[in-house]
Specification:
2 domains, alpha+beta, 3 helices, 21 strands, elongated, about 15% helix
Length: about 240
């Protein structure tokens, strides 16, 4: 099961990389690439992909995707020193050295984008500039665990999608609707007693009480009012 999920994670990341690669280089990545070429060989390895320079500044080794000829993808290793926080649609940068407690930092099982330390939960969001690390606001490191779908996580009070809390979800009444395809454990929908969610967004007009997944039909889900194709779209 883990191997199946891991393969899907890799495929998903490759799709993201292929769809977002271009010739424009992020300023911070350019700085990191330059820095890596000059003195990264002097960095001290701590654990996983984390290193420090001679001043004790923390860096994370990442891979930057570069579009090559004939739709090929080349890659370049670089070192990133930042972590990001999403607050009310505003992205705040923070130094890795300030954010991560490297002594308690640990990865979850293979097949998830989440990791943790004693203070925070982190989500690695894949992009052509390398996976950038987000602090998952509001997540409790003591109770957080990834769900079988690598994009989702849950703690004692909230469910998270791609590092963000699903807003408007009644956690006490939540129900996770896993794919009816028994070859995978991906999440199709999450609902509570009033609202249905797909990829963290509300499925407008869906009746949560009667909403269910179906098999053997041209549609994937239905409620008393509508039938739904993939991605929460109604069948017209």
């Amino acid at each position: 099961m883990i191997n199946q999920i891991s393969i899907k994670v890799v495929l998903a990341i490759l799709v993201i990389l292929l769809s977002s690669c271009n010739t424009d280089k992020n300023t911070e990545v350019e700085k990191s690439l330059t820095l890596q070429a000059k003195d990264s060989w002097k960095y001290k390895h701590l654990k996983g992909k984390f290193y420090t320079d001679k001043y004790g500044k923390l860096f994370e080794q990442k891979v930057y995707a570069i579009a090559g000829k004939e739709e090929t993808i080349n890659s370049q290793i670089y070192f990133d020193s930042l972590v990001y926080i999403n607050l009310d649609d505003t992205v705040i940068e923070k130094s890795l050295s300030e954010a991560i407690d490297i002594k308690t930092y640990a990865e979850f099982d293979e097949g998830t984008m989440y990791s943790k330390d004693i203070n925070n939960i982190y989500y690695s969001n894949a992009s052509s500039s390398g996976a950038f690390r987000l602090i998952v606001s509001g997540a409790n490191p003591k109770t957080f665990k990834p769900l079988s779908d690598y994009l989702y996580g849950i703690d004692s009070k909230n469910i998270f999608y791609r590092g963000k809390k699903i807003e408007g979800l009644n956690f006490e009444k939540h129900e996770i609707l896993y794919s009816l395809d028994t070859t995978d454990f991906f999440i199709d929908y999450i609902k509570d007693d009033k609202v249905v969610f797909y990829d963290g967004d509300t499925v407008k007009g869906a009746d949560a009480k009667t909403f269910k997944l179906v098999a053997g039909q041209k549609w994937r889900a239905e409620d008393k009012n509508y039938k739904y194709e993939c991605c929460g779209q109604r069948v017209e």
